[in-house]
């Protein structure tokens, strides 16, 4: 009963925080739609400040209401005035609060690349646009075979969407596995890793091609749940997650990782895939090491 009451109470506080701050965010989002020139950048800053404040209040709710220990390791050199690419493993919706705990107001507010169609989602589409989430358009190989004149247009559109980041720092988050980890998925894939699914290099190659020159470093983030099973978000807000380890390692970005054509150059594609696989091999070993601490 106590677990249920805690979950309901925390849910109520999280919803209240969202409802209170969503209104001001929408106001500045609408102002941004009509603001000219430099004023639009100020509206972007206001929207970002509201989003960061929302995340900080969520952190306060968690610290006051649930006993979870957020064991954050590394990241002592994080800065708010530079741009990062975050590469993380993905197991649960708890991964998002974990990133908020580790990175909010220590790095620029993080962003995800979204499909262009999502901009039409009521309210949320406007919020994501106001938060300067890049909306990307990806053409399939079959579509490009019928319309070869559009080759390269998807990357051009995404680069144009990222123009604002030349005037403000950004943290871009990329989950290379493309979906949440489970043992069943790992076996179905035939993944060579013990605690990870196979990484997809295409997504990160697209981000690097669009934004490589604007990114200063890679934040290699590893999220580990020492308990026997991967917890869900309800487990977290009920107070049933005793500890979450967030390991952060800052890695330099080699310019060679975006100075090529991933789609059409096999040698360059292999270079990016080798880099991603090496990251994943090291991350798999690090997960095993961090989990072994509880034994």
Automatic annotation (TrEMBL):
Coiled coil: none annotated. The keyword Transferase applies. GO terms for molecular function: acyltransferase activity. SUPFAM superfamilies: Glycerol-3-phosphate (1)-acyltransferase (SSF69593). It holds the Pfam family Acyltransferase. Keywords: Acyltransferase, Transferase. NCBIfam families: PRK14014.1. This is Acyltransferase.
């Amino acid at each position: 009963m106590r677990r249920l009451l805690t979950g309901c109470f925390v849910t109520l506080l999280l919803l209240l925080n969202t409802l209170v701050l969503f209104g001001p965010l929408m106001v500045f989002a609408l102002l941004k739609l009509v603001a000219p020139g430099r004023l639009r950048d100020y509206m972007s800053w206001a929207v970002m400040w509201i989003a960061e404040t929302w995340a900080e209040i969520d952190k306060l709710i968690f610290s006051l209401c649930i006993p979870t220990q957020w064991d954050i390791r590394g990241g002592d050199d994080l800065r708010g005035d530079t741009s990062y690419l975050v590469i993380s493993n993905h197991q649960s919706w708890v991964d998002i609060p974990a990133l908020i705990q580790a990175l909010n107001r220590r790095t620029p507010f993080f962003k995800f690349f979204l499909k262009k169609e999502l901009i039409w989602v009521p309210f949320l589409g406007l919020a994501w646009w106001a938060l300067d989430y890049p909306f990307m358009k990806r053409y399939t190989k079959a579509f490009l075979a019928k319309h070869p004149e559009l080759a390269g247009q998807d990357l051009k559109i995404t680069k144009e969407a990222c123009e604002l980041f030349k005037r403000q720092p950004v943290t871009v988050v990329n989950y290379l596995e493309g979906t949440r980890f489970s043992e069943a998925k790992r076996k179905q894939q035939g993944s060579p890793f013990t605690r990870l699914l196979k990484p997809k290099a295409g997504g990160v190659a697209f981000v690097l091609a669009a934004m490589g020159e604007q990114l200063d470093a890679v934040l290699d983030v590893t999220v580990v749940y020492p308990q026997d099973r991967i917890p869900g978000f309800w487990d977290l807000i009920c107070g049933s997650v005793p500890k979450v380890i967030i390991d952060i390692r800052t890695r330099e970005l080699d310019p060679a990782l975006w100075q090529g054509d991933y789609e059409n150059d096999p040698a360059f594609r292999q270079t990016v895939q080798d880099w991603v696989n090496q990251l994943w091999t090291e991350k798999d070993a690090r997960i095993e090491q961090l989990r072994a601490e509880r034994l």
